[in-house]
Design a protein that fits this description.
Order of helices and strands: EEEHHHHHHHHEEEEEHHHHHH
Strand content: 5-15%
Helix content: 40-55%
Radius of gyration: 30 Å
Largest sheet: 3 strands, antiparallel
Number of strands: 8
Structural class: mainly alpha
Strand order of the largest sheet: 1-2-3
Number of helices: 14
Distance between the termini: 112 Å
Length: about 375
């Protein structure tokens, strides 16, 4: 029902309704028409079962996102660090004070468009921020606080990463020669075995099997911004794998084990000069020096894994074989490495010509008249 009460500058129209549990709640309007419209809307929603308690939507996004983060006990440390950074730097400064019920598609679209400005964080960070906001708000929808997710910007969460350069085998050799000798094998394994940086830093002597010519991956190292080093399992079950080492690399592996690795099975494969774990900033500094020394400054360390997987694809490896070697549970990444390279395309063209010539020669032999 609607009650009218006098206020200093006129009248207020209070809509008094009961929620499905019987609790009384009130919402005030300055016009009778607005009050009647709201009352009718609430009655219809309760009738069809889409009613949402308007009081729940009054929680601010900052408070809701904080609770959301607390409840995500399964987040990996690096992911938690990433989400916290996106929230504190790109989401909450603009939207943190907004109540959930007042988050509209227009407001979200305006916020997202500002992230894409020239002085913004970049398209990749904008996409990550949008995906996180959409996920956080979707939980409010699942909890019955909102009817619909206001994150409705088409393809805003899609990251369009630039195609990374693939070093040649000669360039890989130059980079391996230029980096500190303790990290030479790390560079080679990253490329020829397609290992991730965290996987490389987690390797121990016992993970190398010289008889079977393989390296076992069952842990990965994550180093947080505060310097904390966390040793855990790979991201997915597919990340736990055994990768065959190309035979030409075995002398490098043996030499590294003899020079830089302790005798205990648990001895780390890659360490600093004092024998402790190889820290990320030390590795990065050595990598930058190697790039500058060789003039190959365009490459990232992760490009070595990209190169190795691309080379593996050109050998004719199937999608499933690439997935197993790369440690991916999805075929999407493996398929990306099966793209046609110019060199591979030339080889195919040459093979087609050889097929054509062989066919013509065969026809000529058959059609030759008998003497």
């Amino acid at each position: 029902m609607i009650n009218v009460r006098k206020v200093k500058n006129g009248k207020r129209y209070d809509v008094r309704l009961r929620d499905p549990s019987g609790r009384l709640y009130t919402k005030s309007f300055s016009s009778k028409r607005d009050a009647e419209t709201y009352e009718a809307k609430m009655l219809v929603e309760k009738t069809v079962g889409t009613w949402m308690d308007p009081r729940l939507g009054r929680v601010k996004l900052s408070e809701w996102s904080s609770k959301w983060m607390e409840q995500r006990v399964d987040l990996r440390p690096r992911t938690r660090e990433l989400y916290s950074g996106l929230l504190s730097h790109h989401i909450l400064p603009q939207l943190g004070r907004v109540e959930l019920s007042k988050l509209s598609p227009t407001l979200v679209r305006t916020w997202y468009s500002k992230l894409l400005l020239e002085n913004g964080p970049g398209a990749s960070t904008a996409a990550k921020s949008y995906r996180l906001l959409r996920t956080i708000v979707q939980t409010a929808v699942a909890d019955g606080i909102l009817v619909r997710n206001p994150c409705q910007v088409d393809k805003a969460g899609v990251e369009r990463a630039d195609e990374r350069p693939v070093p040649t085998i000669a360039e890989l050799s130059n980079l391996a020669d230029a980096i500190h000798p303790r990290m030479r094998l790390l560079v080679l394994l990253a490329a020829w075995c397609g290992l991730r940086r965290g996987e490389l830093l987690g390797l121990c002597r016992s993970d190398i099997d010289l008889v079977e010519q393989s390296v076992r991956v069952d842990r990965a190292v994550v180093e947080l911004a505060n310097g904390e080093r966390i040793v855990g399992s790979p991201k997915t079950d597919a990340g736990r794998r055994t990768v065959a080492i190309p035979p030409h690399l075995l002398p490098e592996v043996t030499s590294h084990l003899d020079k830089y690795v302790g005798e205990k099975p648990t001895a780390l494969l890659f360490t600093g000069v004092k024998g402790g774990p190889l820290r990320l900033h030390v590795l990065q500094k050595a990598w930058v020096r190697a790039k500058e020394k060789t003039g190959l400054t365009k490459f990232h360390l992760h490009d070595l894994r990209h190169a190795g997987n691309t080379w593996a694809a050109t050998t004719g490896a199937s999608t499933k074989e690439l997935m197993a070697r790369m440690g991916h549970s999805s075929s999407a990444a493996a398929i990306r490495y099966q793209h046609a390279s110019s060199n591979r395309d030339k080889a195919i063209a040459q093979a087609l010509s050889a097929l054509a010539i062989s066919s013509e020669e065969s026809l000529n032999v058959v059609s030759e008249p008998e003497i």
